[in-house]
Design a protein that fits this description.
Blueprint: E1 15-23, E2 27-35, E3 39-49, E4 58-62, E5 65-72, E6 76-83, H1 86-89, E7 105-108, H2 110-113, E8 119-125, E9 128-133, E10 138-142, E11 155-157, H3 163-172, E12 180-187, E13 193-199, E14 203-208, E15 213-219, E16 229-241, E17 244-255, E18 262-269, E19 277-283, E20 291-299, E21 302-309, E22 312-319, E23 325-330, E24 345-348
């Protein structure tokens, strides 16, 4: 996520936070502020966290800065508030300047997080921290304008399967339960934030978290003969259009028998005032046999997908309209001493 505007003459829309989370017996979170085209701003920050941390984080712009959320061990949530200091507002410092060892607040929420089972995904949407888990439960915890979580007001969204179905499924194939595979934020109707949930039955559901209203539902499988597919990953790409924003959900579906994965693109729109929901659904013609989806972007009728194939990062281009393959580029990247690219948990906020 880009840093919030400074309120000064120039905004900080050209600045981002990068993160690197290292898990061993304990965890360490590394944060760095970077200006696009100018490099690192200020000093990097390293926070030591007892126990293992879920290998992802979520962040939201709040009044006076931004807030970063982590899911800690023993059913606790870490909250890191990053206020925009007067020095940062003058564009001379970093939003990380005031971060110290005790800056991470820890909120224990065993009752609220118990329905998740093991956590699988997290994001923020509609003023809520959203957490998904292997039991296909989705817990939404509201936060105020300053980013403070109201743990006691947590709510649980209805999911794709009933409690009885989840129980029977866990008995028959406990090792194969994934539950909620991805929780993604996207712009929805009327400028509201929409939560897109991808479940292990290959369904995607769009929710208005603030009203707990189900806006749309779609089966991501390309045809009726794809019953053995299981979602592995999903990402969202957003583009500005004359009639509003275009939202494309790109999902990687994996067959159980180890065959090459299937990629599908589901486009959501609010065309001509119709009900917001999926307007097209196509299978992409992926040329790489073993490509792992990482992120995506959309520009007009072209969908760009960043993936890893054969240990290398590649960008693949597809037609949003029919899924046809348009071309590819391989990214240059540094390698370690052993010739392999490091596979740490990293990201950009």
């Amino acid at each position: 996520m880009h840093l919030p505007a400074s309120g000064a003459a120039g905004s900080h829309s050209d600045r981002v936070l990068t993160w690197h989370l290292h898990n061993h017996n304990d965890s360490s979170l590394h944060l760095t502020e970077v200006a696009l085209g100018a490099g690192q701003i200020g000093s990097a920050v390293r926070l030591e966290i007892p126990g293992q941390t879920f290998p992802a984080l979520a962040a939201s712009a709040v009044d006076g800065g931004m807030c970063v959320y982590l899911l800690l061990h023993d059913k606790a949530i870490g909250v890191l508030q990053l206020p925009l200091s007067s020095r940062h507002q003058r564009s001379g410092g970093s939003i990380l300047d005031g971060v110290q060892g005790g800056s991470l607040q820890v909120l224990h929420a065993p009752a609220q997080l118990a329905p998740l089972g093991s956590p699988t995904c997290m994001t923020v949407a509609g003023g809520h921290l959203v957490l998904g888990g292997t039991l296909d439960a989705v817990v939404c915890i509201p936060f105020d304008a300053s980013g403070n979580l109201a743990v006691g007001q947590a709510l649980q969204l209805p999911t794709s399967s009933s409690l009885l179905q989840r129980f029977v499924g866990s008995l028959m194939s406990p090792s194969q339960r994934i539950g909620t595979v991805a929780a993604l934020q996207a712009p929805g109707p009327g400028g509201r934030q929409v939560l897109l949930l991808v479940h292990d039955d290959c369904s995607v559901r769009a929710w208005d978290v603030a009203t707990q209203q189900l806006l749309a539902s779609e089966d991501l499988r390309p045809d009726a003969g794809s019953a053995s597919l299981t979602p592995r990953n999903a990402v969202v790409a957003v583009a500005e259009r004359k009639r509003g924003k275009q939202v494309v959900l790109l999902a990687e579906l994996e067959p159980q028998e180890g065959a090459p994965s299937v990629w599908v693109a589901c486009t959501f729109s609010d065309a001509q005032g119709a009900r917001w929901g999926p307007s097209s659904h196509v299978q992409l013609q992926v040329p790489a046999q073993r490509a792992r989806l990482l992120s995506a972007a959309v520009d007009g009728d072209k969908l760009w997908a960043l993936c890893e194939a054969d240990g290398r990062a590649r960008v693949l281009a597809f037609s949003v309209r029919d899924g046809s393959y348009q071309g590819a580029a391989r990214l240059l990247q540094g390698e370690g001493a052993d010739g392999n690219v490091a596979a740490d948990e990293v990201g950009m906020l």
